[in-house]
Each structure stands twice: as C-alpha cells, then as structure tokens.
Amino acid sequence: MSTAEKILQRHVESLCTNARPAARTVALLPDAKRRAALKAAATAIAAARSAIEKANALDLAQAERDGLSAAMIDRLRLGGKRLDSLIADLRQVATLPDPVGQVLEKRTIAQGIKAEKISVPIGVVAIIFESRPNVTIDAASLCLRAGNACILRGGKEAVHSNRALATAFRAGLKKAGVNPDVVQLVQEQDRALIPLLLSRDDALDLVIPRGGEALIKAVVACSKVPVIKHDKGVCSLYIHAKADLRMALSLVINAKCQRPGVCNAIENLWVDQTVAKSFLPALSKALQKANVEVRADGRARLMMPNAIRATVEDWTTEYLSLTLAVGVVDNLDDAILKTETFGSHHSDGIITRDVKAAERYLAEVDSACVYHNASTRFTDGGQFGFGAEVGISTNRVHARGPMGIRELCTYKWLCRGKGQARE
Amino acid sequence: MSTAEKILQRHVESLCTNARPAARTVALLPDAKRRAALKAAATAIAAARSAIEKANALDLAQAERDGLSAAMIDRLRLGGKRLDSLIADLRQVATLPDPVGQVLEKRTIAQGIKAEKISVPIGVVAIIFESRPNVTIDAASLCLRAGNACILRGGKEAVHSNRALATAFRAGLKKAGVNPDVVQLVQEQDRALIPLLLSRDDALDLVIPRGGEALIKAVVACSKVPVIKHDKGVCSLYIHAKADLRMALSLVINAKCQRPGVCNAIENLWVDQTVAKSFLPALSKALQKANVEVRADGRARLMMPNAIRATVEDWTTEYLSLTLAVGVVDNLDDAILKTETFGSHHSDGIITRDVKAAERYLAEVDSACVYHNASTRFTDGGQFGFGAEVGISTNRVHARGPMGIRELCTYKWLCRGKGQARE
Fold it and tell me: B4-25 burial string, b = 16+ CB within 10 Å, else e?
C-alpha cells in the first residue's frame, strides 16, 4: 500500500469509527435536543459568516483560474443573501415535526402479541455531492432532524466553503452538547477514497449520491452500501386529444422554461395527432419567444418548420437547458408506450379534460410522480409540503420521488407480550 | 470472451430482455387475474407431481453421491406431504389481499394539487437462494401476488427440482393467459453468471439473496442492483432484575430449542446479576435436559459449572444449533450495550415485570423486532399475519424484519391538478 493509500485508508477508518457511536447518540436524543442542536448550528454559522465568506472567495478565485463556466461559478457562490437563506432554512428544519418515533402501524400478531411499527433513524448516511456548497448544510440538517449521523463528501471546487460550513455546524453541535461527529466532512479530496468508504457496509447504512450521471454511476459501481440514487429526470408532458389547449400551452412553457436546469423540467413533449394541427403552430411561436430550441419528429416538423429533426438520442436526453424534443403520437396508448420507453420514470404528466384517459395514464405510467393537468415542476419536497428535501429519489425501493426527513427514517417492530412462546 | 462466458452473457441478456415486458404486463393485471394465475400455477404443479418427484429423486441421488449431510438432504426432499403443503401454500397466497393500488397517503400539495401515494409493484426482482427447492415456488408466488416479475436462481443441489417446479409454474401461467416470463429460472449453474446478472441495474430493480453468509457477501460485493439482505440472526434475550423467572425459563427454552436452525432463534442470553444466582442453576438443568451446549462468561460459569468458557467470538456467532452463549450483565444499560455491540440487530427481547425498564429496552435496542415478554421466534411473516414471507430483511431501508407481499411493493405519487404551474 502506498503512503497516499494509507492516508486515505486511515481517514476512512476514522470516519467510520466515529460515525456509529455518533449515530447511536443522535438516534436516542429527544426531539427538543435535536431541535436545539439545529438552532445552535444556525447561530454558529451566522457567527462564522466572515470566515465562510472568505473560504468561499478562495473557491471562487480557484474556479476563475480553472476557467469554470459562469453557471458553475454561480452555483458555488455563497455570500450575502444566499448565506442568509441557508441560515433561515436551517432554522426552518428545526421547526419540522419530528419524523422519529411515529407509530406507522399497529397489529395484533400471533397469540395476541401487540406489535407496533415505529419510525426510527436509518443510522449512518453518507451523502456524496457536487458543486453547490449549501448541500453540506441541507444534508447535515435533514439527517440530524431525522436522528441520523452523516458523512458528507462534497465536490473539490467547493472544498474551502464546505470545510468552513461544516466546521461552524460542528461548533454549533458542540455548544448544544451534541457529539459533533454526528456531522463529519470527508477531508481528503482524492476520488480513490470513495470506493474505500463505500465498501464499509459495516459502518454505513445508506449512501445518497447527488450529482451528474458519472458520479452516480461511479457510486453504484463500487458501493456495498445500499444506494438511493438521485439520478436524471427525462420528464414529459402528453397533450391528449381532449386537452384544454390553452392550459396545455401554459403548462408546457412552465414545465420547460420556469427553471430548465432541474430534473423535474420536461425534456420530451408528446402531442396527440388529433390536436397536433391546432396546437403545434401556436406552441412553436411560444417556444420561439421563450428561446427554446425544438427537436421534432417528422410529423411534428410539418407544423413546426423551424424545428431541428430529432434523432433517437433526443428522446432519452436530459437537456437541462432550453431544448425540447417534440413528437406526435397516435393516441393515449402510444403516448404511454413512448413515455415508458424513453423517459426515466421521474415525473410525467397528461393534459386532458377526459378523466377516464387521465386515470389510465396515471395508472399505467410508472413514474415516481405522475400528473394530470399540472406542471411536472411540482416534484419537489418543498412543493409536496415536506418542509425540505434531500433530493428526488429515482430508486424504486424505500423512498421514491421527493425525499424529506420522513424518507430518512426506517422502522422497527416493537412487540409486547405476556410470556408467549412459539408453538 | 471465452465460449463459456458468451453462453452466460447470452443467457443473462435473454433473462433481462424478457423480464421488463413481463413486469409491465403483470403490474397492470387486475387483482382477479393475478389470483387466477396463482391458482392455475397450483393446479399445474399438482398435475406435474410425478415429474417433480422424479426430478427431486435425481437431486437426492446426486446429494447422496456427493456425501451431503443428512440435514442438507432433508432440506432438499420434496415428495408427498411437502409437495401437498407447497401447493396449499400457493393457493393460500392467491387468497391474500391485493397489496397493489393501496392508497398509502393523501395530501394536498402546492396550489391545491391533490396528491395520492399508492402502492405499486417494484418491477423485476431477482432472488438468489440455496438448497430448499420450495423457495422457487414461495418466491415466484409472492412476487406475482405483488405484481412483480422475478428471476430466480436456486442452488445447484436442487437444480432438477427447481427446473421441474418452474416449468410447471410457467405452464400454469400460460394456461391462465399470463406471460410465463413473469417467472424465469436461471438455467446456467455457473456462479460467474451472478455478477453478470447483478450488473444489470437497467433490467433489475431489486435483488434478494437468501442463504449463508458467503452467498450474501458475494451478492453485495458485485451487485449494482439494490440488495435487500436476508442475513444472519444473532438474537438474544435479556433476563432483567424484575423478570418472572418461570416465564424467563420457558421463553429461553422456546427461543433456543423450538427450532434452533433458524435466524430468529436466540444465540446469546444476558442475565442480570441480581437474578443470576436464583435463575442460572435452574436454567442450567433445563438446558442440559434439552441437550443445549452452554458457552458462558466467568460470572455465569460460577452458577453453571458444566458450561464451556465463552470466547469473544461466541458472542457474535450464529450457531444455528443447540448451543447458547450465556453472560451475566450488571444492569439494563449493560444489557442494552451488549445486545447492541454483539447482536446482529435482527430480534432481541427483554423479560421483565418492570414496564419502565421494558420500554427503555424497546426504545434503545435497535433491532428489526424488539420483544417484551415474548419469544424472539415470532419474527416471521406468518406469525405477523402477513400470510407468507419472502424472508426476514436485515436491511435498514425499505423493508426491515419480516417481508411479505406488501414489502415487495414500492409506491408512486399520483397528482391531480387543474392546470397549476409552478410559480
């Protein structure tokens, strides 16, 4: 083993050794104490404002030197109002109802034993993310609210900002009398650390990767720990034969343009052939006005002469930009088939006045969130009333779709008897 | 790539290609049709009885030639009454309430959109198991009841039996007009197939390994697909200072001896120092009578002179046999600490008349099932009233503890709006 490897190995060992007792402590803390710890962390971050802004300036300067895009640099920025709202969000998480200890189910099992299914923290959660440094605080606060310990590994572009934030958060925990190892930040930026960490299924209970496809693939490939992916969204709307076309127009524009760089924005639009002629020319104009580039199939291009011809790749691409793939479909069945074939099962919607058609679409489209007459942009923990979210799960098990503090819990069965033995 | 590798690769490709459309079909089948398919499978297995028994005889003969233990050979056996009860169980699964399409939660989200969280099948479930051929039918029937397609890979000792069972099951499906690929059996026994199959996270949604530690480790090490482990049970009872000692004696004997080879039998017993003197001599006699070998710590051996001295390994060993590790603990805290440190977080119990102590134990012991005054042997889908079980999950996410048809479902959000766009 090289010296570099030894350093990584030792760091992983220390993270894992500290995490389990910290998880046990925080799992058993009463609600009031977890709330107080979050408030103390918010106060500590406010007090460390100048240190955090200095650290962020270092990251921004490095990003300039490295020639990162303006969008990337903007995502790194953490001064002024952004720091204010980060602190406000943190205080808000403290006000969320306790997700731990909730009775999820009661049943009388064999021989009259009373069983109660109650929510408990998952334990140790690793979160691996890119660029935006505020994720450090989001993830730490949501994990703590749900009684979990976390190990955070942010992107190298935000290394100074993340350190300053985590240091302040841990200082707050200490002040509140809580083991600061409830929140640990990975200190070594070497990517070789990730497989070492994720092989430790003895010490970690869950890993959540948040970032681009490459990051998620890398995590899935090397993890022995259960992974909840926050993977790409190839979302769509389908304009049914009986759609209110004014509503359709407004929802397509909203779902594509209101914030194109996010996973719940649409990338594909399917238009029923019976309304293609009446809908597409008006849509074409509206999209042009909104600076949306259109990739269309042969039938759609007849009514959208400015559109580029779509290739097969277009239907499965997450543009994350003002680009939209438009196709004409034969009918509801065809729309469901294409949504299922090309989409990523994240968020999809139908626009129609026909309730029967809508219900078939809702039943048959197998996505985390399926919409009738609403924008796909609502797939979001905040919009769902979860208070805050770790992200949007694209897994099919445990947590699917918006993931809040409830989804950071698991459960256990408490069984109360009177001496019953198995016969 | 060698010819052997090409054959495996082609087989995996075919399993994966068939599974997704089959999963889609079965997910959309109405309840009555899924019930009918299960009944048809039961009828087909009854009709194929002689073929199944012939196949089983081949496996038994091979097992004799290979010198397998009597216990192993017994687990392979599938004739007569065992086949009757397998068919009866299959018919019983058809009578379980439909776990699919249940409304798990309703909430009004942003701007008055009505969101409904409903249960849906997970999709394609791979189950990798050892020896007992009846798992083929258990797994197939539970997956189908919950609207999932499955890919089954049984142990090589049961290869003929598994093939005969799967062939009959698929014939039943065909007769009921259901795509037989809802249940696929891996045909190649080469272990090299497993990593190839489990790298296909595009085609599989979940893998459940059932078997010994080596199997589970191998699956976790190579899987890109989410894994729900059915891992070992190092379960315990704690005899508290205020225990009813007659109840304690009967529950220790039940939890250890009623069926020692299963995961919910106890391996460790913790006895409070205040009752050690009054409890251990009587226990010693009772265990001797039941042919249980005792491994005890220093304090326990003072009252159990026949016991072997326990080593550190004893406290973490799943004996699966008539062996019990016995230790004396200082108090409730010590008992909780030792249960948490050495146990596998499967099933643990406290025996006491002191409700306060019991509630602390229930709250602080972090196991899938925690008992007060009852045997740990109740951790079982049948005992919990789930009708049937795929097994006992030792994962911390999604499904924890007994896993029935409900735990073979995930959910999706249906969102019904009136044209709402995100602001």
Answer: eeeebeebbeebbebbbebbbe
Domain A3-230+401-416, second-level architecture: 3-Layer(aba) Sandwich (3.40)
Contact criterion met (CB < 8 Å) for B421 and A258: yes
Query: What single letter denotes the amino acid at residue A177?
Result: G
Statement: residue B217 has pLDDT above 80: yes
User: Can you give the pLDDT at residue A398?
Assistant: 86
Whether A355 and chain B come into contact, CB under 8 Å, resolves to: no
Q: Is B209 on the interface with A (CB under 8 A)?
A: no
d(CA A130, CA A75): 10
Size of interface A-B (CB pairs under 8 A): 212
> ipTM score here?
0.94
CATH of range B235-378; options 3.30.450.40, 3.30.420.10, 3.40.309.10, 3.40.50.170: 3.40.309.10
Gap from A333 CA to chain B (nearest CA, Å): 13
Model pLDDT for residues A347-362, shown as the tens digit of each residue: 999 999 999 999 999 9
DSSP B147: T
∠ CA A245-A247-A251, nearest 5°, is: 115
> Would you call B228 and A397 a contact, using CB atoms and an 8 Å cutoff?
yes
| Cβ <8 Å between B374 and A419 | yes
Which pLDDT score is estimated for A190?
92
Upper half-sphere CA count for residue B399 (Cβ side, 13 Å):
26
Q: Residue length, chain B? A: 423
Q: What's the mean pLDDT in A225-243?
A: 95
Q: How far apart are CA A361 and CA A366, in angstroms?
A: 9
Contact B219, B227 (CB under 8 A): yes
Query: What residues of chain A lie within 8 A of the CB of B399, using their CB?
Result: 397
**CB count, 10 Å around CB of A89?**
17
Whether residue B198 contacts residue A223, with contact meaning beta carbons closer than 8 Å, is answered with no
- Annotated domain spans of chain B: 3-230+401-416, 235-378
Element (H, E) at A356: helix A355-364
Residues of chain A found within 8 Å of residue B401, distances taken between Cβ atoms: 412-413
pLDDT confidence of A9, banded at 50, 70, 90?
very high
**DSSP β-bridge partners for residue A309:** A296
Cα A157 to Cα A135: distance, rounded to the nearest angstrom: 13
